[in-house]
Amino acid sequence: MSGPGAATRAAVSASALCAGYLATYFVSTALPTPLFWYAPLGRHVVWSVHPAELACDFYGRVALALAVGAACGALAWALTRGASPARLARALRLLGAWTAALLVFTAALYVYRLAGRRGSPMPLPPDYQAR
C-alpha cells in the first residue's frame, strides 16, 4: 500500500500503539496488577503483584505495555483498512488527543506516587552478625 492514505493509516496505527502503551502503563501503575518482577539479589524473575523481596517491576511493566500497545496498533491497522482519508484524518486527531491526555495523566501519576516516597530498608537476615 502506498500513497498519502498509507502514511495516515500508519500514523493512526502508531498513535493507537502509543495510546495502548500509555493506558496500560497507567492502569498497571494505578491498580494492583500481576507483573514480572526482576529480583537482582536472587537473580531470578518473580510473577507477583508485589514480591516480598527487593525487586524491580520496570521490565515487566514495559513488556506488558508494549504487548498491549502492539495489539492496539495491529487492531487499528486492521480496522482502518479501506477507510477514507477524511475518516483516517479524524481518527488521527482523536488518537493524538487521547495519547497526549494519557501521557499527561501517566506522568502526573508517577510524579504523585514518587514525590513523597521514602525508601525503607530491607530487614537484616536473622543470622546477621555485626562486626
- Quickly count the helices: 3
**What is the number of strand segments?**
2
Biggest sheet descriptor: 2 strands, antiparallel
Side-by-side strand order of the widest sheet: 1-2
Overall SS class: mainly alpha
Stretches where pLDDT is under 50 for at least 5 consecutive residues are: none
Anisotropy-based shape? elongated
Q: Residue-averaged pLDDT, rounded?
A: 90
Order of helices and strands: HEEHH
Radius of gyration: 20 Å
Termini separation comes to 71 Å
Helix % is: 55-70%
Strand content: 5-15%
The gist of it:
With 131 residues, the chain is mainly alpha-helical.
Give your account of this protein's structure:
With 131 residues, the chain is mainly alpha-helical. The protein has a domain of 86 residues. The chain contains 3 helices and 2 strands. A two-stranded antiparallel sheet has the order 1-2. Strand 1 and strand 2 form a beta hairpin. Helix 1 runs antiparallel to helix 2 and helix 1 packs parallel to helix 3. The radius of gyration is 20 Å and the shape is elongated. The mean pLDDT is 90.
